[in-house]
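Consider this:
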Amino acid sequence: MNHISINTPFIKLDQFLKFANCVASGGESKLRIAAGEVQVNGEVCTMRGKKLVPGDTVTFAGETFTVDAAE
């Protein structure tokens, strides 16, 4: 499991995929989310604006990421 730290209270799902280097662009992020390829906390999520907070998990392309708060 990979841990990704954020400095803000939340991050949107499409931004998270770019931030975690899962996708090359925002356009790709939008397409992957719309296609149902991303899970948030174990459930498929097709909302690219879904707000992720520390403790949430994101699964994409066989990898799982945990959102952590930066200290």
